[in-house]
Design goal:
Layout: H1 3-129, H2 156-163, H3 172-219
Helix pairs in contact: 1-3
Length: 220
């Protein structure tokens, strides 16, 4: 084999080897770059995951604190509800008791008012239906002419009004009505008393006249 041919073959082999080496190196570099890119991407994902984990842990802690606060608030609300129910029961019992007392007091007051009105009506009826006693004319004295007039007797209504004491439990309106009723009764009885008084004094005058007229005849 000639020397030139051998050298050409050696050169071709060398070029072929270099080409293969270059391709392998290029492929290795590409693979290394891809691996590095994968590492960088994984680092980014890992960092994001770490941040998310921290955020979730913070939110979980906040939620745990909120749950604790809500549990305490719920417990306090349950206690307050029990206290309010107990207080409401006491208030309801007290309201019922005071209402019963008020009703009893009102019933007693009604009885007193009715009794007072009935008593006054009875006094009024008795005063109007009882006949007045006739006034007696006093005998004239020998030395004095019989000119004194007997005053009419005091009516039972006035005596009752003078002696009775107003009850403490009577209402102002009832007392006012009773006073008006008594005043009307007195107004009705006043003319009757005056008539009786005039009738009782008339005989005394007549008797004195008769005595006066009889005196001259006897003297003559």
């Amino acid at each position: 084999m000639p020397p030139a041919t051998t050298s050409q073959q050696n050169g071709a082999e060398t070029q072929s080897e270099l080409h293969r080496r270059r391709e392998k190196a290029q492929a290795a570099k590409t693979a290394a770059d891809q691996a590095q890119a994968t590492v960088v991407d994984m680092d980014g994902q890992l960092k994001a995951n770490t941040t998310q984990t921290q955020n979730l842990e913070t939110a979980l802690q906040r939620a745990h604190d909120e749950v604790t606060r809500l549990k305490k608030a719920l417990k306090a609300s349950v206690k307050d509800r029990a206290k309010l129910r107990s207080a409401r029961k006491k208030a309801q019992d007290l309201a019922g008791k005071t209402q019963r007392k008020a009703q009893a007091a009102e019933a007693k007051y009604d009885k007193v008012v009715l009794a007072e009105m009935l008593r006054r009506e009875k006094d009024k009826d008795r005063a109007g239906g009882t006949p007045q006693p006739a006034a007696r004319t006093p005998e004239p004295k020998p030395t004095e002419p019989a000119t004194a007039q007997s005053s009419p007797p005091e009516s039972p209504t006035r005596k009752a009004e003078a002696t009775e004491r107003p009850r403490a439990g009577a209402v102002t309106a009832i007392q006012t009505a009773a006073r008006k009723t008594a005043a009307v009764a007195r107004g009705k009885q006043a003319p009757k008393h005056a008539t009786d008084a005039q009738g009782s004094t008339a005989p005394s005058g007549g008797a004195s006249g008769e005595k006066g007229s009889a005196s001259p005849s006897s003297r003559s």
